[in-house]
């Protein structure tokens, strides 16, 4: 086989691979809000985890306290940033955020907490007590 043919095959394979590995629904919202404050099961679980572990610093509904307003933060930080900040903590100009990597419940619930906070960030749910949709 000629070199050029091999290169063509490799690039075809690369294109095929990158097409397949693109996130299928990158823009899809990770939450569902109905009746103003009813969350899907995962986002609701996210709220409960958030309330247990994060609310004392970031406010009951993420609106900020000693820690920053996460509804605001999530407009700017990526999901990857969120995951790594929660895992590794962050010390900056505002203060010190503990690392959660040793807390299995928090680490396992990062997706769900992100979903809840994203709903807050998008304004889909306000500074109100969420309920679980039936
Ligand atoms: C002891 C207080 C405290 C607790 C508890 C806490 N945080 Fe934080 N968090 C902070 C502080 C303070 C900062 C700001 C650090 C800085 O940049 O100065 C922060 C920053 C963050 C950021 C980065 C925001 C940005 O704009 O970059 C995220 C995301 C975050 N916290 C999520 C969480 C989540 C999720 C939890 C619960 C699992 C949590 N935090 C629990 C104090 C806390």
N- to C-terminal distance:
61 Å
Q: For the residues shown, what is the average pLDDT?
A: 90
Give the count of structural domains: 1
> Are there runs of 5+ residues with pLDDT below 50, and where?
none
Bound molecules: heme C
What top-tier CATH class fits best?
Mainly Alpha
Binned, the helix content reads 40-55%
Examine the secondary-structure arrangement and name the CATH architecture: Orthogonal Bundle
Classify the fold: give the CATH topology: Cytochrome Bc1 Complex, Chain D, domain 2
For CATH, the homologous superfamily is named as Cytochrome c-like domain
What's the number of extended β-strand segments? 5
Outline:
extended
Largest sheet at a glance?
Answer: 3 strands, mixed
Structure description:
The protein has about 130 residues and is mainly α. The protein has a single domain, classed as Cytochrome c-like domain (Cytochrome Bc1 Complex, Chain D, domain 2, Orthogonal Bundle), CATH 1.10.760.10. The protein has helices spanning about 5-20, 40-55, 55-60, 70-75, 80-90, 105-110, 110-120, and strands at about 35, 40, 90, 95, 130. The strands form 2 sheets. A 3-stranded mixed β-sheet has the order 1-2-5. Strands 3-4 form a two-stranded antiparallel ribbon. A hairpin with a 3-residue loop joins strand 1 (about 35) and strand 2 (about 40). The site of heme C has 25 residues, from helix 3, helix 4, helix 5 and strand 4.
């Amino acid at each position: 086989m000629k070199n050029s043919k091999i290169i063509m095959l490799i690039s075809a394979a690369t294109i095929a691979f990158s097409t397949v590995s693109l996130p299928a629904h990158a823009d899809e919202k990770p939450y569902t809000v109905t009746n103003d404050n009813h969350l899907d099961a995962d986002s609701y679980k996210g709220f409960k985890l958030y309330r247990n572990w994060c609310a004392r610093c970031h406010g009951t509904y993420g609106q900020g306290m000693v820690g920053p307003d996460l509804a605001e933060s999530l407009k700017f930080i990526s999901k990857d940033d969120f995951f790594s900040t929660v895992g590794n903590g962050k010390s900056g100009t505002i203060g010190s955020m503990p690392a959660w990597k040793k807390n299995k419940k928090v680490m396992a619930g990062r997706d769900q907490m992100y979903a809840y906070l994203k709903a807050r960030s998008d304004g889909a749910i306000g500074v109100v007590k969420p309920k679980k949709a039936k």
